[in-house]
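Researcher: Here's the sequence for the chain we discussed earlier.
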Amino acid sequence: MDSNNKEAVLPPCPQCQSAYTYEMDALLVCPECGHEWNPNEVAAEEATTDTLVVKDCNGNVLQNGDSVVTIKNLPVKGTPQSIKAGTKVRNIRLVDGDHNIDCKIDGFGAMALKSEFVKKA
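Model: Thanks. This is the structure I predict for it:
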């Protein structure tokens, strides 16, 4: 076997991780799920998506400084009262972790919330 005729190893499908991808013109295609993508665009996307992406309950992307509204009553440890549904929270800060929103709520002080219990205001 000639060392110049090595087959190019294609990346797996970004959607289903199938290893059976093939080239079609400038695109790569997955025969299992039918996904088509440009490998150059995916590489560029991966290089720029090192930042934290946090989404609310409706799938909207949240950013630092956004305002959100709670969608249900949220119990607060150590206090008999809870944060009521519909409470508006301003100037949020996104952090990495299970409770991925840091904020200050009037009457409660500094809090950490889960993004799945808020929607973008």
